[in-house]
Amino acid sequence: MDGEKQAQKAALLKKLHSGPKILVLPNAWDAISARIVEEIGFPAVATTSAGVAASLGYPDGQRISRSEMLEVVARVARSVQVPVTADMEAGYGVTPAEIAETARELIASGAVGLNLEDVTGDDESTHVETNLQAEKIRAIRETAASAGVPLVINARTDVYLMPIGPEETRFERTVERLRAYAKAGADCVFAPALKDAQTIKELVKAVEAPLNILLMPGVPSISELEKLGVARVSIGSGLARAALGAARKVANAMFERRDDSSVFADAVPYAEVNRLLGRA
């Protein structure tokens, strides 16, 4: 991708975090799902690590390699005209230098933003120390500046999602981490699994940075989140899992040998798929 054009897309993505409307991201997992999101009219496309991993036969949680993840991200970036932000899990590295290499390869893929988690494994023992995570964010920021593409960093903490530590201190620890990440250079901060409206409202004020909330059962509606001051909302693997649910419904009907044409009611027509991918 042309460097100047990529820098312009990065600037646009960052601007989308500053309102007046909430940035809504239904995460894609491949080129065709990204094209559908773009065709509907969303101003940016985000990828889902879980969706990408599952499509290639891996469970979520950095089981997929960096190269395999970036190959899919590159396909998505080539397939759409809008900015692409990629879920890069915990960065596929341990040191700031390794994270910087991920940032370089991400820029080469054509993406202009990324999610960065602060948990590298399956339990809270892998929760990255706050200062080290901040160093990783600074390494991404410096690498992006050197490349002339100001990557939009969405820095995530999994204090609520895993969850980590005593319940009564989760809010304070989340604020501490997210403020440190914003100070280190994150453009947006992310606290998945936070559901309570009042707590979300308080977090918006406390972090002093655009806040991303994950759509999941029990979370306020998008309209309500917008009123609470949330800057960005994403659905993670939700869209991919909804597609899997539709696939299972059709497969079950076939297995049971039912003549149930209703299972195809929401199917995207064959010609439409080809059109979205550039075939006349």
Show the helix and strand layout.
Blueprint: H1 3-15, E1 23-25, H2 31-40, E2 45-46, H3 49-55, H4 66-79, E3 84-87, H5 96-109, E4 113-116, H6 130-147, E5 152-156, H7 170-184, E6 188-190, H8 197-207, E7 211-214, H9 222-228, E8 232-234, H10 238-255, H11 270-276
Parallel strand pairs: 1-8, 2-3, 3-4, 4-5, 5-6, 6-7, 7-8
Helix pairs in contact: 2-4, 4-5, 5-6, 6-7, 7-8
Could you characterize the architecture of this molecule?
This protein has 280 residues and is α/β, with parallel strands linked by helices. It has one domain (3-236): Alpha-Beta Barrel (TIM Barrel). Helix content is 48%, strand content 10%. It has eleven helices and eight strands. It has helices spanning 3-15, 31-40, 49-55, 66-79, 96-109, 130-147, 170-184, 197-207, 222-228, 238-255, 270-276; strands at 23-25, 45-46, 84-87, 113-116, 152-156, 188-190, 211-214, 232-234. Strands 1-8-7-6-5-4-3-2 form an eight-stranded parallel β-sheet. The longest helix is centred in the middle third of the chain and has 18 residues, at 130-147. It is globular and about 60 Å long. The two termini are 24 Å apart.
**What is the CATH architecture annotation?**
Alpha-Beta Barrel
Unreliable spans are none
CATH superfamily: Phosphoenolpyruvate-binding domains
The major sheet is characterized as: 8 strands, parallel
Q: Kindly report how far apart the N and C termini lie.
A: 24 Å
Number of helices: 11
Radius of gyration: 19 Å
- CA-based shape: globular
Order of helices and strands: HEHEHHEHEHEHEHEHEHH
CATH topology term: TIM Barrel
Strand order of the largest sheet: 1-8-7-6-5-4-3-2
CATH class: Alpha Beta
Number of strands: 8
Structural category is: alpha/beta
Residue-averaged pLDDT: 96
- Strand composition percent: 5-15%
Structurally, the number of domains stands at 1
Helix proportion: 40-55%
